[in-house]
What we know:
Elements (H helix, E strand, L loop, with lengths): L12 H5 L1 H20 L1 H30 L5 H20 L1 H29 L5 H20 L4 H30 L1
Helix pairs in contact: 2-3, 2-7, 3-4, 3-5, 3-7, 4-5, 5-6, 5-7
Amino acid sequence: MSAIDVLVVKIPPEMIQNWGWFLALGIGLVLLGIAAVTRSVKATVISMSFFGWLLLIAAGIEIAQAFLVGKWAGFFLHLLAAVLFGVTGALFVWRPVVSAEVATLFMAMFFLLSGLFQLVSSLVIHLPGSGWHALNGVITSVLGILVLAQWPVSGLWAIGFFVGINLLFYGWAWIALALDLHKM
């Protein structure tokens, strides 16, 4: 047995036949990504509102779950989760700009601290490829610093911009899959 085993994946014929749908999905995601990057403020507000509605739906599910468990000790835990989801969701829906600013502050702090952690840990623990981890730690920390330096203004554009970048890369991944399927 070798050090690296190869995982063989059998691709169903239906996937190969419908490669065009994957291509259309990828193109659609890339277009949405471009729109989100160019209209990052609007994408931020839409993202926060969408996430708020998801939290409100989750609050409803938690309330239903609380009553389904009945007298079980988890009743108050589900009820507490429902209140937290509901309050947070309502704030996200009714005040998406302020919510985006707060979420951006937390995101920037996370980038800064996780980047510093990754940098320090890669310097202390010398594993293969630790230089790449150190570089990633530096880049992540710099992103956190850049977003923090422009806060609260960065709260208006950062989330939408990051969502747009994610959509662009996700779309390109689907396009690459579709083109590989088309070659088969």
